[in-house]
């Protein structure tokens, strides 16, 4: 079956099913959606969550969460940090999806370093049977524990941002 032989197409069937008074341009629809999201940000604060990129991994975070990050990380205990690499931010009403990151300064995720230490001991046991070969190695990785203080959608969507960094 040839695509050109189909009558219309998916898009044209949807457009023709809409009454003429309901037809809107894509730009008008986008403006309405953005206006609705801005209104929800101002009037109806709810529990926000975000997906952030931190040390090569993606984490879903919300207010009050604890993260245990493995590997060396320079911040000291008590440091308040701002996590800039936000991939997605959402509430129960809408989502802001980045390509690949959400617009800088639009979403603010702040965290506090709670503790630094070593992980539990991992045992690596190697043995070759009938060869009298056995090795036992122990490994402990550095860990940093973070508490997420807040996830805030700070500015209005599609506004000019000043003093982002």
From TrEMBL:
Keywords: Ribonucleoprotein, Ribosomal protein. It comes from the Eukaryota. SUPFAM superfamilies: L21p-like (SSF141091). GO terms for cellular component: mitochondrial large ribosomal subunit. The keyword Magnesium does not apply. GO terms for biological process: translation. Pfam families: Ribosomal_L21p. GO terms for molecular function: RNA binding; structural constituent of ribosome. InterPro entries: bL21-like, bL21-like_sf, Ribosomal_bL21. Belongs to the bacterial ribosomal protein bL21 family. This is Large ribosomal subunit protein bL21m. It comes from Parnassius mnemosyne. The lineage of its organism: Eukaryota, Metazoa, Ecdysozoa, Arthropoda, Hexapoda.
């Amino acid at each position: 079956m040839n695509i050109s032989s189909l009558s219309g197409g998916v898009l044209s069937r949807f457009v023709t099913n809409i009454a003429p008074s309901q037809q809107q341009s894509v730009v008008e629809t986008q403006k309405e959606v953005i206006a609705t999201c801005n209104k929800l940000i101002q009037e109806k604060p709810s529990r926000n969550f975000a997906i952030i990129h931190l040390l090569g991994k993606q984490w879903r975070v919300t207010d009050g969460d604890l993260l245990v990050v493995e590997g060396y990380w320079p911040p000291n205990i008590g440091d308040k940090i701002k996590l800039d690499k936000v991939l997605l931010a959402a509430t129960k009403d809408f989502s802001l999806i980045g390509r690949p990151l959400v617009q800088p300064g639009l979403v603010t995720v702040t965290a506090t370093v709670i503790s630094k230490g070593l992980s539990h001991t991992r045992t690596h046991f190697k043995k070759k049977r009938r060869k009298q070969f056995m090795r036992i190695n122990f490994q402990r990785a550095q860990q940093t524990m973070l508490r997420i203080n807040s996830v805030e959608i700070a500015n209005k969507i599609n506004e000019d941002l000043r003093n982002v960094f």
